[in-house]
Amino acid sequence: MHYEGFIIRPPSEANSILLQVTVGCSHNKCTFCGTYKNERFKIKSDDVIMEDIAFAAKHCKNQDRLFICDGDALIVPHKRLLNILKEIETQLPWVHRVGIYANAKGIKMKTDEELRELRAHGLQIAYMGLETGDDVTLKNVRKGVSAQTMIDMGQKIRASGIKLSITVLLGLAGRKRSSVHAEATGKVLTAIDPEYVGALSLMLVPGTPLYDDYEAGRFELLDATEMLSELRTMFAHTELSNGLFHANHASNYLPIRAKLPEEKEKTLQLIDSALQGNVSLKPEFLRAL
After folding, report:
1. How many folded domains does the chain comprise?
2. Could you check whether the bond before residue 70 is cis, i.e. omega within 30 degrees of 0?
3. Which of 16, 22, 113, 201 has the lowest CB atom count within 10 Å?
4. Long-range contact list for 277-285, CB < 8 A, 24+ apart?
């Protein structure tokens, strides 16, 4: 496989075939992210992509999922992305699920019909980084999109039949807007009603603008108890019709996995018990990105 730069994938795609179609992120301005800071965004050539699919056809017969990398590969022009999916269908018929990272811009560039066509040819799940539902925090971290746009694009991709997994980031608003960020994010998640929500806890990355703000005293990082309190507020304001809310990423202090709506009260009780000191939290040295 022809990999370039730093490859990332969602935790749930750990055992998937990783097909790199783009390098980097087309936005690459978020103040908290250092993943692609030294990479210029590009779409790889069709020849290289097809070579990698052919390689997977020979050597990846025990993997029945495939994830299209990198940061926001849905932004690839529709005809090219559709041809890639069709080639996967042809050469890897045992693959039953294809996933992809998607941002609001990439979703907006696709028509409803195009999204349905991608779904018909195997694209079953998209991962979108919401991070926060608070417009002030979205602006501060240079996400380049409003909460309402996130809602619109999330609802758009869900309407196509593509499942949606949304990532949110605890602690992103700092101390002053913690409760606002938590409540607003829960409300945006409720409006989108995705199949999956993944909550991560902010870990500052040296070399990023947000880390510089922290070092200069312009940003206050939440401690473990404050992160947990923020998680409780966010979770309490999230209503999903049939979704999975999990905060079991390595960055989190308290692993939770809750099916909503049926496990909401039980999970709130668990968080409350942890806040009261009756449940042990993950020690700092075991946390990781």
Report:
1. 1
2. yes
3. 113
4. 279/254, 281/224, 281/228, 281/253, 281/254, 282/252, 282/253, 282/254, 282/255, 284/224
285 found inside a domain: no
Task: State the Cα–Cα distance between residues 67 and 17, nearest whole angstrom.
Answer: 6
Task: Report if residue 167 sits inside a domain.
Answer: yes
Question: pLDDT confidence of 181, banded at 50, 70, 90?
Answer: very high
Nearest to 21 by CA among 84, 64, 63, 110: 84
Q: What is the pLDDT of residues 78-104, one digit of tens each?
A: 999 999 999 999 999 999 999 999 999
In a domain, 289, yes or no: no
Q: Which domain holds residue 174?
A: 11-275
CATH number of the domain that residue 238 is part of: 3.20.20.70
- Which of 181-184's residues contact partners 24+ apart within 8 Å by CB, and which partners? 181/132, 181/133, 181/134, 181/137, 181/230, 182/230, 182/231, 182/233, 182/234, 182/237, 183/233, 183/234, 183/237, 184/132, 184/133, 184/134, 184/135, 184/147
Mean pLDDT of the chain: 95
Give yes or no for a contact between 203 and 166, defined as CB atoms under 8 angstroms apart: no
* Residue showing tokens 């890639």: 84
Burial of 244 (0-12, 13-18, 19+ CB in 10 A): middle
Q: Nearest to residue 267, comparing CAs of 280, 258, 279?
A: 258
pLDDT of 115 higher than 80:
yes
Report pLDDT digits (tens) over 250-284. Answer: 899 999 999 999 999 999 999 999 999 999 999 88
In a domain, 6, yes or no: no
